């Protein structure tokens, strides 16, 4: 695994790349990709960073694990490549946007259009073995992505963090809530959404209100 990450992130993260845990992680990921089918493809592992540059980052959405089905994961949390059937969580995200903002349900589940507007679509774990959910958890990715969240919190101001579900909500401890805004909700997965913890959260319109208050461009969801 080459750390193919956009130059804008390097001054803030290059110390992480030298740490023993990260070197172990690189060895693990290289072995997995050589010996097993893994997702996303090697050149998409750092897609979240390569499509949302450090200076542009104004919203962070935290996912947990990449999709582990064939052709789904593209390195952006909750996103799938063009032409791929929308997974249940993504369907519920789009349904909430539809009811919150009146935006028609989109054809493509590719959230690259969000990343290009300054949304860091960050999974806590950046790789997974095919058809084995959680197979690359606790190998070092979470240490790295926690460092990313803390770095954004420390080095930037007025970022909106969207924390969906119990796992993401725990990341609030890494965020300086005096400098940044945190919006929380249940997870968009059917299990949570069908119990009433997702729909009606208005996270998308509220994100735009918060950005507008700070004189920043709103997101075209």
TrEMBL record:
EC id: 3.2.2.27
Domain Uracil-DNA glycosylase-like: 50-211
Gene Ontology molecular function, alphabetical: uracil DNA N-glycosylase activity
Xref: InterPro entries: UDG_fam1 (IPR002043), Ura-DNA_Glyclase_AS (IPR018085), Uracil-DNA_glycosylase-like (IPR005122), Uracil-DNA_glycosylase-like_sf (IPR036895)
Top-level enzyme category: hydrolase
Keywords on record: Cytoplasm, DNA damage, DNA repair, Hydrolase
Catalytically driven reaction(s): Hydrolyzes single-stranded DNA or mismatched double-stranded DNA and polynucleotides, releasing free uracil
GO terms under biological process: base-excision repair, AP site formation via deaminated base removal
Alphabetical list of PROSITE patterns matching this protein: U_DNA_GLYCOSYLASE
Cellular localisation: Cytoplasm
Major localization listed first in the record, in broad terms: cytoplasm
Family of the protein in this entry: Belongs to the uracil-DNA glycosylase (UDG) superfamily. UNG family.
Protein name, entry field: Uracil-DNA glycosylase
Species of provenance: Algibacter marinivivus
Gene (UniProt): ung
């Amino acid at each position: 695994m080459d750390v193919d990450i956009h130059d804008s992130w390097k001054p803030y993260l290059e110390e992480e790349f030298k740490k023993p845990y990260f070197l172990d992680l690189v060895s693990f990921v290289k072995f997995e990709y050589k010996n097993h089918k893994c997702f996303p493809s090697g050149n998409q592992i750092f897609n979240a960073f390569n499509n949302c540059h450090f200076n542009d980052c104004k919203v962070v959405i935290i996912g947990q694990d990449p999709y582990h089905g064939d052709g789904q994961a593209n390195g952006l949390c909750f996103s799938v490549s063009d032409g791929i059937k929308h997974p249940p969580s993504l369907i519920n995200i789009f349904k909430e946007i539809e009811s919150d903002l009146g935006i028609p349900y989109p054809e493509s589940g590719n959230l690259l259009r969000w990343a290009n507007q300054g949304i860091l679509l960050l999974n806590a774990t950046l790789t997974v073995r095919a058809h084995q959910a959680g197979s690359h958890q606790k190998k070092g990715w979470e240490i790295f992505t926690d460092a990313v969240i803390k770095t954004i919190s420390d080095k930037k101001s007025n970022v909106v963090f969207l924390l969906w579900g119990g796992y993401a909500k725990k990341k609030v401890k890494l965020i300086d809530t005096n400098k940044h805004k945190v919006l929380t909700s249940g997870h968009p997965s059917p299990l949570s959404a069908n119990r009433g913890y997702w729909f009606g959260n208005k996270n998308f319109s509220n994100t735009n209100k918060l950005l507008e208050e700070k004189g920043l461009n709103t997101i075209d969801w």
